[in-house]
Amino acid sequence: MEWIVDRQSNKPLYQQVFDFIEQKISYGEFPPGTLLPSERKLAERLNVNRMTIVHVYDKLHSVGLVERKRGSGTRVSTHKWGVLSKGFTNWRRYVEGSTFLPTYPLIKRIREAAKQLGNGYDLASGELSSDLFPSQLLQSSLVDESFPNDLSYEHPQGHLGLRETLSAYVKTHYNIKTTSSSILITSGAQQALYLITQCLLSPGDAVAIESPSYCYSLPLFQSAGLRIFGLPVGPNGINPQDIEDLYHKHQIRMVFLNPTYQNPTGTVLTDTRRKEVIEIAERLGIPIVEDDPFGLLSFKEEKHSPIKSFDHNGNVLYIGSLSKVVASSLRIGWLIGPQSVISRLADARQQMDFGLSIFPQLIANKFLQSADYTTHRKALTHELLDRRNAMISALHEILGDKVNFIAPNGGLHIWCKINRKISDEKLVEEGIKNNILFMPGSVYGFPDGYVRFTYARLEKKHIKDAVLQFSDILSHI
Question: What domains does the chain contain, in order, with CATH numbers?
Fold first, then answer.
């Protein structure tokens, strides 16, 4: 519930909460059958006394707006929709019957808390903080930009100028040789994944993804009806032989990898293993989907060649994005693959929205062509390294042997193992109560007792205080 009580109002707190829920029900936002939060949880979320919520629920029940049953909680009435006697659509049946699954409750809980965090510590959101955005550079790069006279629908694959710029960009930075006709511009990496799962796979197909992986936090795989099998991630990434084993055991049809500064572990798949992945994929005829959002965020001079750079037969679909390097709100990503695949996915995307807005594409094109982009990227990696070092130092100093972690050499995250049994849900709730957010390992398909910290979200001066806060809640659970 994205709402807070007004403590300056003359209206009693219980009446404010009652009016809020009554309005949600009467407007149809809480359809019949909707399960309301427990008294304790709602009291915690609204920061009111539990007896206030008991009073509210009792009053809602007395006027017939909700039904209460011991052991089943409090639900919006299905027999009498409060004082509304007219017929109504049972939206709950549609919502719950949809094949596209909702965001996992724990992730949704963290995201809702992030909106109300205020001066707390956000180590959960997997993106850059606003002070790292190149806002001024983007502004200056647009001063002389002229927009086209023709603002009709763009090419289904995206703005040609941006695709040509990206063709040169991936060759320079990644040694990927491609042409504009083999590139599809997307509104971020997640849209590329959505198109692949919806258009190239069928319900019941088996796919392999890393374990742990951010892919487990995306319901789009389950929504597509795919069977998911894990590839354990070690210090050097996955073991390519595991791909072959899964192929023979489960007939996997596609492999999804994030080989460079993997999310959430921060590990890097070695070049030797990357070449093995290509060899196995070519021999078995299995497509590889390579998601590479962090490839240019290296803290060392060494570059990690994408798997795609070793691909000479079109076995790899390569996903890139500006979200982690420029700004998440720019919503510019790209997909590189065989022309027939790109054409099919472009057609599918066009059926959904007739293409992307031209304006973010023009901004991205201009920025990538300018010297400002290189200036920004160098400054960004330098700042991220400082923040990573600050977090490593704080973790060692404050938590010591309470956690284990491997310092990443790039990317945005540190993956920590807590060296005792602990409930992820309880840890997250305590964090929310104490104004510190982080992502638990369970949302990445891993057991309780792991957390991902995003050091890119906090200024360096606040990182030690955030770790102190985490240590405090850890010691009280």
Answer: 13-98 (1.10.10.10), 107-126+375-475 (3.90.1150.10), 147-369 (3.40.640.10)
